[in-house]
């Protein structure tokens, strides 16, 4: 806390008594004397007004109670990267035990934050550090140019989530000093991103994992920044209210994992815009309100050219209630694992068995391996359960008389094939 204000105070991220906010105003607020900062709280319930006082609007808030005026002495503007790193790993006073030990993730990578005693034993100097977590350490800026590179040049994995970083440019100033950076977590930093493509540099030339959950980034901003991430393989964009507005052209072509969960503005039609990503294996679409999916290039019983490499699909916590959704998934040529828990369809009788029967190549369902005998049983039960419906629709064991109507074939695309494979009476 200090009465000395940064020159670029407007737009800065700050912390006040454990609450996070963005500075929207700096100046006098008559009739009370002295300097005030007008802040917009991340939690609007923390505020008192919309940025106005006694009829004068000093700044604007998105929420009518999102704003407050606070004295500069009450505000924490944060530390530079290296100061925070030394506090966490080297110079911080505290017990020499494991009380401060915790485990954090940067994408799919595990980062162990350990106590002073273990740091002094295993990483006695900053230069030895490779995987670090500065979660919730009030990091706000890079600091003096070149000091990070000089002090800790071997860092590869960085968790900078829940800090006070304000702009993508400040992130670049940190990252350009970490020449071997492979994974970076910036979640819960309310960042201002470039409105157009930044100048191409080698800053992120080794970056493979980037976590941008709850940063406020838009899809357009993702594509503007993406040329700077030439080898990126994992991108996490959870809870940003993203809408997919355009195709990634000549960017994100090496991406294997994309997490778009908790972005309710995404709908089925937008998914086609990312369907051509050639290496996308793992797609997370949980909690986006998804109820249907369709691959129009493939007819019943055929494979789609969309999402050619997709092996793992997660659609938990959505509004999936129709079996047509599962029928469409059988069109994916590479799909091996599906997780679709907490959907209305999950409550259907023998839902998992039916899903197994409907998707031929599925090997894992809801994180459980599908054993060969389990698949055989599911397919046999499925054939028995809908046998009468098949016959009423025109199905018949005699191939010459077997003519189920289009409605049945649409509802049960694999049924005839299952009859062939389980009874071998006839084949189509």
UniProtKB/TrEMBL annotation:
Native species: Mus musculus (Mouse)
Main location: cytoplasm
UniProt domain CAP-Gly: residue ranges: 27-71
Record GO cellular component, one term: cytoplasm
Alphabetized PANTHER family for the sequence: CILIA- AND FLAGELLA-ASSOCIATED PROTEIN 410-RELATED (PTHR18849:SF0), LEUCINE RICH REPEAT PROTEIN (PTHR18849)
Keywords assigned by UniProt, alphabetized: Chaperone, Cytoplasm, Leucine-rich repeat, Repeat
Protein name: Tubulin-specific chaperone E
UniProt keyword Chaperone, yes or no: yes
Taxonomic placement: Eukaryota, Metazoa, Chordata, Craniata, Vertebrata
């Amino acid at each position: 806390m200090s009465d000395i204000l940064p020159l670029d105070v407007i737009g800065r991220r700050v912390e006040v008594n454990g609450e996070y906010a963005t500075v929207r105003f700096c100046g006098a607020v008559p009739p009370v004397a002295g300097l005030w900062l007008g802040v917009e709280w991340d939690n609007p319930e923390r505020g008192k007004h919309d940025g106005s006082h006694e009829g004068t609007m000093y700044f604007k808030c998105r929420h009518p109670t999102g704003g407050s005026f606070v004295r500069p002495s009450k505000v924490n503007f944060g530390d530079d990267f290296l100061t925070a790193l030394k506090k966490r790993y080297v110079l911080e006073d505290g017990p020499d035990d494991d009380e401060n030990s915790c485990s954090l993730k940067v994408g799919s990578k595990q980062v162990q934050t350990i106590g002073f005693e273990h740091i002094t034993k295993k990483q006695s100097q900053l230069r030895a550090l490779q995987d670090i977590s500065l979660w919730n350490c009030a990091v706000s800026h890079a600091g003096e140019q070149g000091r990070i590179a000089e002090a800790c040049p071997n860092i590869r994995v960085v968790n900078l989530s829940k800090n006070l970083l304000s702009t993508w440019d400040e992130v670049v100033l940190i990252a350009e000093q970490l020449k071997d950076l492979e994974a970076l977590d910036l979640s819960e930093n309310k960042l201002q991103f470039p409105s157009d493509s930044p100048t191409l540099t080698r800053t992120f030339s080794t970056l493979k994992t980037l976590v941008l959950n709850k940063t406020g980034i838009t899809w357009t901003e993702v594509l503007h920044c993406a040329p700077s991430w030439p080898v990126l393989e994992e991108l996490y964009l959870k809870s940003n209210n993203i809408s997919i507005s355009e195709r990634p052209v000549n960017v994100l072509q090496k991406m294997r994992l994309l997490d778009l969960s908790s972005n309710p503005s995404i709908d089925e039609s937008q998914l086609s815009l990312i369907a051509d990503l050639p290496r996308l294996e793992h797609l997370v679409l949980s909690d986006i309100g998804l109820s249907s999916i369709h691959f129009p290039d493939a007819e019943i019983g055929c494979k789609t050219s969309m999402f050619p490499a997709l092996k793992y699909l997660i659609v938990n916590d959505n509004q999936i209630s129709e079996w047509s959704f599962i029928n469409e998934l059988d069109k994916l040529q590479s799909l091996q694992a599906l997780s679709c828990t907490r959907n209305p369809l999950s409550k259907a009788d023998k839902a998992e068995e039916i899903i197994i029967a409907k998707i031929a190549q599925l090997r894992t369902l809801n994180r459980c391996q599908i054993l060969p005998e389990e698949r055989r049983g599911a397919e046999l039960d499925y054939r028995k359960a809908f046998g009468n419906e098949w016959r009423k629709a025109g199905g018949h064991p005699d191939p010459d008389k077997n003519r189920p109507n289009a409605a049945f074939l649409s509802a049960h695309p694999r049924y005839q094939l299952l009859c062939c494979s389980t009874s071998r009476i006839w084949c189509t």
